[in-house]
């Protein structure tokens, strides 16, 4: 049982490049989310999914896309990277986040130059 | 949506003293209140949680209290140790939209 696995752990992108952050969980959780963490701003929700085939926007969705083709995987795509997207990104999963909280992945530190 | 405010943003305590972090929430329907600890460079990890039908919960040196009438909850750490130094996040779970809303975090530093 690996929990929530995120790759890569570190990434440097040039402005305008695109990339996909991978997230996979093996706990059969229906709920998955992507958060970004910036100094002094806590954890901000980017996108979330309540099950395969269903996604929705969080509070800071601009510049990011997601898809949920399987229960296990929830990739986050940066369409055209900008310096403002320099952050630490966490994927998280849960049976029901409002009732059981989240299990977080180890994070991806992204720098856009 | 739910709005969670957390205070203070930074807290420095002497080893052995107590630390208290307070959070308020806006949605009276919220009924689940977890606390996460994030050590430097690591992921947030759940350390304790409380549900709306309980007023207080303890686990060794940490305790949480909940006042639903006032819509606030607190984390208490007693006999602080250097390994308690971390960022702590409170959160509130709202059943209407299945979401968990986080506070902005408190950086706790335990001085030896």
- Quaternary state reads heterodimer
- Quantity of strands of chain A, as a count: 11
Kindly state the percentage of residues in helix of chain A.
under 10%
User: Radius of gyration of chain B over alpha carbons?
Assistant: 13 Å
Q: Can you walk through the features of this model?
A:
The complex is a heterodimer of chains A (113) and B (112). By secondary structure, chain A is mainly beta. Chain A has one helix spanning 97-100; strands spanning 4-7, 10-13, 19-25, 31-37, 43-51, 54-57, 64-66, 76-78, 87-94, 103-104, 108-112. Helix content of chain A is 4%, strand content 50%. In chain A, strands 2, 4, 5, 6, 9, 10 and 11 form a seven-stranded mixed sheet that branches. Chain A has a four-stranded antiparallel sheet with strand order 1-3-8-7, with no helix packed on it. In chain A, strand 5 (43-51) and strand 6 (54-57) form a beta hairpin. By secondary structure, chain B is mainly β. In chain B, strand 7 and strand 8 (72-77) form a beta hairpin. Classes of the chains: A mainly beta (113), B mainly beta (112). At the A-B interface, strand 5, helix 1 and strand 10 of A face strand 4, strand 5, strand 9 and strand 10 of B.
């Amino acid at each position: 049982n690996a929990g929530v696995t995120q790759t890569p752990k570190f990434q440097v992108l040039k402005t305008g490049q695109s990339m996909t952050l991978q997230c996979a969980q093996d706990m059969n959780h229906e709920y998955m989310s992507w958060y970004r963490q910036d100094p002094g701003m806590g954890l901000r929700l980017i996108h979330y999914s309540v099950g395969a085939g269903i996604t929705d926007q969080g509070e800071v969705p601009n510049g990011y896309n997601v898809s949920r083709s399987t229960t296990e995987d929830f990739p986050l795509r940066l369409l055209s990277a900008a310096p403002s997207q320099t952050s630490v990104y966490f994927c998280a999963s849960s049976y029901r986040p409002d009732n059981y909280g989240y299990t977080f992945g180890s994070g991806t530190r992204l720098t856009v130059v | 949506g739910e709005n969670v405010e957390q205070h203070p943003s930074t807290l420095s305590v002497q080893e052995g003293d107590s630390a208290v972090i307070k959070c308020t929430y806006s949605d009276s329907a919220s009924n689940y209140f977890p606390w996460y600890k994030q050590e430097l460079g690591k992921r947030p990890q759940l350390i304790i949680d409380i549900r709306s039908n309980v007023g207080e919960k303890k686990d060794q040196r940490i305790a949480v209290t909940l006042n639903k009438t006032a819509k606030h909850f607190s984390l208490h750490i007693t006999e602080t140790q250097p390994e308690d130094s971390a960022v702590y996040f409170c959160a509130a779970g709202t059943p209407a939209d299945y979401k968990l809303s986080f506070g902005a975090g408190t950086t706790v530093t335990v001085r030896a």
